[in-house]
């Protein structure tokens, strides 16, 4: 029987600078078609007029703090996120970070994966 050797380990809440003036991004896992990142925001937001438009699907969860995402649509939609809230953002769904908490670091866990047609077998 072979021992299980993890590819990496750590703690998502270590290394948080509460006084940071810039956003921090740590790439945790990179595999073909998959990227997992930890993002720490301390009051940052997307610049006015800036929209993310990623060719990959994105799944994001807020672990601490709070934030709001704004989605570009016929009628713009703003979604507040509190700890535990997550959202799946399909590829090319234009969005921006409207605000993040200035008093408590907002820790995001973001998973980027290749957009494809249809769902995997067994998904509901």
From TrEMBL:
Pfam families referenced in this protein's UniProt entry, alphabetically: Cupin_2
InterPro entries with a match to the protein in the record: Cupin_2 (IPR013096), RmlC-like_jellyroll (IPR014710), RmlC_Cupin_sf (IPR011051)
Record-annotated Cupin type-2 domain positions: 54-112
Coiled coil: none
Highest taxon of source: Bacteria
The protein, known as: Cupin domain-containing protein
């Amino acid at each position: 029987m072979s021992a299980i050797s993890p590819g990496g380990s750590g703690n998502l809440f270590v290394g948080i600078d509460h006084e940071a003036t810039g956003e921090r991004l740590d790439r945790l896992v990179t595999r073909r078609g998959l990227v997992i990142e930890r993002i720490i925001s301390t009051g940052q937001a997307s610049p006015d007029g800036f929209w993310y438009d990623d060719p990959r699907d994105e799944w994001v969860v807020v672990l601490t703090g709070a934030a709001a995402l704004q989605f570009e649509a016929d009628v713009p939609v703003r979604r507040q996120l509190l700890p535990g809230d997550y959202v799946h953002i399909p590829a090319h769904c234009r969005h921006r970070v409207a605000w993040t908490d200035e008093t408590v670091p907002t820790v995001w866990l973001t998973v980027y994966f290749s957009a494809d047609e249809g769902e995997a077998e067994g998904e509901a």
